[in-house]
Amino acid sequence: MIYTSGSTGTPKGVEISHRALMDYLNFALKGYYADHLNGSLLVTSHGFDIGVPSLYLPLLSGGSVQLLDNQELLPALSKA
Questions:
Q1: pTM of the predicted model as reported, rounded to 2 decimal places
Q2: Distance between CA 72 and CA 60 in Å, rounded?
Q3: In this structure, are residues 65 and 42 in contact, taking their beta carbons and an 8 Å threshold?
Q4: CA 58 → CA 6, 14, 26, 52, 55, distances in Å?
Q5: How far is CA 11 from CA 3, 48, 49, in A?
Q6: Which Gene3D superfamilies has this protein been placed in (predicted)?
């Protein structure tokens, strides 16, 4: 289950099958990251649709994901 942005009103929960998620992630990994993806900074909720690639793509390519609380977020982004 992921949630849409709510651009048309309230965010909506959307069920995503494991197969659909893996198909998308494999496509994105090949299409967006020809080289190894070392890591990612997850700046949105993992339940929000835009957070899904930031969470799973680095892990699928052998990289890491950094999870930060709100107090650490802005300083970390300023260094990126």
A1: 0.64
A2: 25
A3: yes
A4: 26, 23, 12, 11, 7
A5: 6, 9, 11
A6: N-terminal domain of ligase-like
